[in-house]
Amino acid sequence: MALTVGLRPLTRALLRPWARVPGAALGRPAAGSGDGVRCFGSPRVLVEPDPAAVGVAVMKMRNPPVNSLSLEFLTELLISLEKLENDKTFRGIIITSDCPGIFSAGLDLLEMYGRDPAHCAEYWKAVQELWLRVYLSNLVVIGAINGISPAGGCLLSLSCDYRVLANNPKYAIGLNETLLGIIAPFWFKDVLVNTIGHRAAERALQLGFLFPPSDALQVGIVDQVVPEDQVQSTARSVMAQWLAIPDHARQLTKNLVRKPTADRLLQQRDADIQNFVRFISRDSIQKSLHVYLEKLKQKKG
Ligand SMILES: CCCCCCCCCCC/C=C/C(=O)SCCNC(=O)CCNC(=O)[C@H](O)C(C)(C)COP(=O)(O)OP(=O)(O)OC[C@H]1O[C@@H](n2cnc3c(N)ncnc32)[C@H](O)[C@@H]1OP(=O)(O)O
Q1: 168 has catalytic annotation
Q2: How far is CA 244 from CA 64, 90, 117, 247, 270, in A?
Q3: pLDDT, the chain, mean
Q4: Which CDD domains does this entry report, sorted A to Z (predicted)?
Q5: pTM
Q6: One of 76, 111, 129, 177 is an active-site residue; which one?
Q7: Long-range contacts of range 206-211, CB-CB < 8 Å, 24 or more positions apart?
Q8: pLDDT tens string 187-221
Q9: By mean pLDDT, which of 6-15, 56-65, 223-232 is the weakest?
């Protein structure tokens, strides 16, 4: 799936492959490189083969200050994911953050506030694409959640196969859209229902719950809560457990479980984009976003 088609020239320029040792396919030392495999990535996404786990890549999100999912960041994530999917030396990805205390602050509000319909449509298509790419990935995708993870950050986490959360009370996770005066789209809702069940999801969505780690574990929005300094090692050991399963059988099973949910969006992607553009363009919604952005600014004092 050529994802770079239709990208804005700036974005395409941003994503020129970094200098790499010729012939260094991801996961394999380049001929004569001598110093092992090379990382690759782009300004906001660093992908490093895990030196302790063959076939595993660690994808570090580094879009400071809060890993907000801007269009450029989404595009870089998509292209990095596509590269990993296409490189058969990789069987698993650990997604984590390089921004201290924050996994991802979710969708970038400035991509939805004060923007024209064409931009909102382009942005929403990229949001859809990231979800589909992660949710349906043939790779094992493990979230090493080392920071707060509201809304879009929670969706990214829920789209992984397994979630390890650092036991820091500040690292809340949840679909908090109602607190902003907006709503989670049906496919965000579907993933939450699939993960924590209908009643728990209904309550959490309406109240915009951000679950602290202990509650997140209890409700099932994450699979494991560990001390902060054990998140990456725990993710790695869980990855080994999942990679012990033959890929083809696991991939077919993942598809069996997840395709009905993904199909609900795939069958109506354009309508979903139009619904988003209509909804986000409403004066009342733009006002809500303005109020929320002002609150964020005032918070800084
Ligand atoms: C019929 C219906 C059809 C469908 C309808 C669909 C409807 C729309 C779909 C909407 C789905 C939305 C999903 C989302 O993800 S919305 C975003 C939700 N995110 C949040 O609520 C998090 C907001 N941020 C925070 O709470 C804090 O920033 C955080 C705890 C993450 C970090 O706090 P900290 O104190 O460390 O940092 P600051 O708050 O000072 O932030 C630093 C700067 O970053 C800016 N910022 C923060 N979050 C965002 C964001 N999500 N987008 C853009 N910018 C963000 C913040 O303003 C600061 O900026 P400045 O330094 O310039 O002041």
Answers
A1: no
A2: 35, 14, 46, 8, 39
A3: 90
A4: crotonase-like
A5: 0.91
A6: 177
A7: 206/178, 207/178, 208/174, 208/175, 208/176, 208/177, 208/178, 208/179, 208/180, 209/174, 209/175, 209/176, 210/148, 210/150, 210/172, 210/173, 210/174, 210/176, 211/172, 211/173, 211/174
A8: 999 999 999 999 999 999 999 999 999 999 999 99
A9: 6-15
